[in-house]
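Let's practice the habit of predicting before peeking. Look at the sequence and jot down your guess about where helices and strands might fall. Then scroll down.
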Amino acid sequence: MFAIDPSASHDCIDITGEWMQSYSKTLSWNKSRDCCSWDGVHCDDTMGKVIELNLTCSNLRGKFDSNSSLFQFSNLKRLDLSFNNFSGSLISPKFGELSSLTHLDLSYSSFRFGPHNFELILKNLTQLRELDVYGLSISSTFPLNFSSYLTTLRLSDTLLWGILPERVFHLSNLETLDLSYNPQLTIRFPTTKWNSSTSLMYLSLPEVNFIGKIPESFSYLTSLHYLDMRSCNLSGPIIKPLWNLSHIQILELRNNHLEGTISQFFKFGNLKVLSLGINNFDGQLDLQSFFLSSNHLNGTIPSWIFSLPSLSELYLNDNHFNGKIQEFKSKTLWDVPLKQNQLQGPIPMSLLNQQIVSAICSLKALTVLDLGSNNLKGTIPQCLGEMSGLWIFDLSNNSLSGAINTTFSIGNTLRVIKLHENKLEGEVPRSLVNCKWLEVLDLGNNELSDTFPKWLRTLPNLKILSLRSNNGNLPMSLFENLEAMKIIDEITKIPQSVGEDLHYYYHYSETITTKGLDLEFPGVLTTNIVINLSKNRFEGCISSSIGDLIALRTLNLSHNGLEGVIPTSLQYLSVLESLDLSFNKISGEIPQQLAPLTFLEVLNLSHNHLVGCIPRGKQFDTFENRSYKGNDELRGLSLSKDCGGDEGVPEATTPFGVDQGGEEDSTMINWQAVLMGYGCGLIIGLSMIYIMLSTKNPAWFSRMVEELDHKIITRMKKHKKRY
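Done guessing? Here is the structure:
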């Protein structure tokens, strides 16, 4: 008699691979209560007869007595004894007396069948719809008598032998057939249409003895979702009828001797899993665009991706890939964002063996090269500057070293160059003067040592310039010819993405030091006109010509050795939002003309040699002590140092049209306006910054940008062909 095993494993696993809790259901059975209320027991609502007994995973063990009271339940329709341990008990013929059974599951229960037992039991179970006995020892030929109502037949790993009767394939209601892992079972498929053709959805036959080829009759299996024929000794070409399996989602054909071209399998529109390993397939994948960005993929990038001969777009950015970038075989590759991974090694092979030339520089159609935020090492290939079609050049946030030896050719179309956050040394390449379309140049946080490249002022479209944390001297003539920073769109005031004027959009970001923070903007706008030359060794005075850059939003010249005074021409920067001149040697007074700069939200003039009174009114009434600290001779309300009374504290001129009433009313009105505007702006600004920093790139935003990215890049591609 079987008993409860309290020491058995607390978990068992069913055929689908889902973990189920194992517990002793029979321990809760109480004879003083109606058995219909017992755990695992279900009764008919009308007659009160037991019709279902579910004891799966119940820690039952020991011999199963053929006189068990179980066989008294003549009305039983469902019986599940799976995942127990009946210690090799012989299946009793009395199971066949439960003639009302529609569902019988004895899988992995350590039963065994005696000679002909299986066939005798099935003979009487004429109402069966589901039969699961996988993992049991049947050790006989395949029975001939199955219920015509069968929808599920699972006989996996049961030591069946002999030839499978064709009539199994003609069970008209069959939906699931699993005969896997019976190597002594021989299968011949019917050559005519199966009666189960329209109903069969799951067919699992790995490691069975298969004779012949896949027949034409497979073309009628139009409902099939799952087909597993691994290790079946199949040979020859894939037949055309197989392509009629329009609903197939999982196709396992590995470890056979099949032939044909690999591209055929892309005809399956619903395919989710395809396994073709260890066969004789040939040919090549004609894949042109491959989009897998913004997922959670990890491991190394599969080598077959680099071997795709027609690949033009490869989006693997924002994942968790690691390892090295291999050599691409495609000569038509033009868009390869790989940023935000953990890729390592050289780009993509050592420059010393010259194979890098054929790997990347031979990609003449390449428009976007984005390998930012990885762990790439080595030097920047010199040939990259000769790629005349390149628009985006982003190798930022890596471990690249050495000099920037790249020579940028005359007539190139580069819009964005981002090499910041590396270990680059030496001088800024003079050939950058050839980049007439350049809008973003970020070489910050490297180890460059150079006099400031004053020829950069000849770049007419430059909108963002960042050379932070390098070494060099600052020529005051820099600001005279930065034409793109001198224009404000007074008509629309609508932000335009960098490069959008040429019908091109690329989803990239730029780290901008603004308002006291290093913020990463996912898509730089032309309204974000930025100069960041902080943390260098620039000397000399700030040229008054900087006042010509009226579109400037952020100016950061902090942590240098600048001297002289703050130029009054800064008053013309009417949209300036952030001004940082801290940690220099600037002297003199703060120009009173700066007070009307109503867009100014962040001001840092700390640690200089400024003297005199801090201007009053407008934004200057909102700046705190930290904006001015380290200037011992500076006085004003923010520093709690008296300027000698109200008359000694200059105040900004009241704008035209404002009623100049009493001093008390004017001051109160100014403070009310300032506090209201500052409060609203602060709340909205902090909310936006919180959303940006906490979500980084929200899913809806990423999807929108990527869709727009693909559409516009495709349009750009057509535009290039037209010209």
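How did you do? The mean pLDDT is 76.
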